[in-house]
Amino acid sequence: MHAIQAATAIHDRFLYGSRHAPVTTTELYHLSQAAALFNRKLSAPVEPSERDALWITAILLGSTTFAQIEATKPEEAWPLAAPKPSDLEWLQISSCKEAVWVLTNPLRPDGIFHTLSNEYYKEYLAPAAISSGIEGIPLLFLQLCGLDTLSTAENSPYYSAVYIIATLLCIESDRLTNARYLSFIGHMKPDFKRLVGQKDSRALLLMAYWYAMGIPLTWWIRRRAEMECQATCLYLENYHADEPVIQVLLRFPRTKCGLEAPVEYVEE
Fold first, then answer.
1. Is 45 helix (H, G, I), strand (E, B) or coil?
2. Rounded to 5 degrees, what angle do the CA atoms 133, 136, 139 make?
């Protein structure tokens, strides 16, 4: 219940508050209570009847953490702002959800999510199932990440991320593509996560594209996606101006997040 109330409070702020309204004490209270109760429940044996409720709570905690961003301008957002403990906290929680998925098995035959099995396999698993080959990946991405016909998900930390970004570029971003969009995070390799945390320029460029394509999606994605896309673009412009491929590729996310006038993505 606390997780639902936290999500409701954040949604209300999104709908009725100002564009950069601060996080409320109501949100923080319910979110902290939800996290404490959730951790307590996971520390004990899980009853079969509790599995769906636990997975729903994990989803709510993940989405509310992503939705909560205090920055009001790009300079206050990751990766442009000064480092702070809460940086990429949402990504850490996303990783924890993987353990809850294994524990609860949401797609089991007697679960309420079983009817979503086909969509899950088609939209969430399929994009990450490709582990080799460069067909369909734009040339500039290949050049930027040093990928060739011998590159695989096992020998390159960028491969899986680049491949999913390439598939997302071929479809229209809307609510129907949420599962495919989120597969980028769900299938992010540990090596790539480390590169993101280290602010590796190539990893950040891919994150900028992911953020950019999330802006038209659901409400809990939109604000962080826009703010951190802008911050990432400005960071790469300020600190990696000497990397021409990155500067060319930045045109797409800059346009999507409102930093410059619209231009069509052109594969070069």
1. coil
2. 95
Q: How far apart are CA 234 and CA 192, in angstroms?
A: 21
**Number of neighbours of residue 257 by Cβ within 10 angstroms:** 23
As a whole number of angstroms, the distance between CA 63 and CA 52 comes to 17
Q: Are 77 and 230 in contact (CB under 8 A)?
A: yes
Query: Rounded CA gap, 51 and 88, in Å?
Result: 27
Q: What is the sign, positive or negative, of the torsion defined by CA atoms of 251, 255, 261, 263?
A: positive
Give the Cα separation of 266 and 5 in Å (integer): 44
- Within a 10 A sphere around the Cβ of 178, how many other Cβ atoms? 16
Please say if the pLDDT value at position 177 is more than 80: no
To 5 degrees, how large is the angle CA 75–CA 83–CA 92?
A: 110
Q: What is the pLDDT of residues 13-35, one digit of tens each?
A: 888 866 567 788 898 899 899 99
- How far apart are the C-alpha atoms of 68 and 255, rounded to whole Å? 24
pLDDT at 266 over 50: no
d(CA 13, CA 23): 8
Distance (Å, whole) CA 19 – CA 223: 9
Split at pLDDT 50, 70, 90, the class of 121 is confident
Of 37, 99, 34, 39, nearest to 63 by C-alpha is: 34
Tokens of 68: 């909560």
Partners of 132 in beta bridges: 152
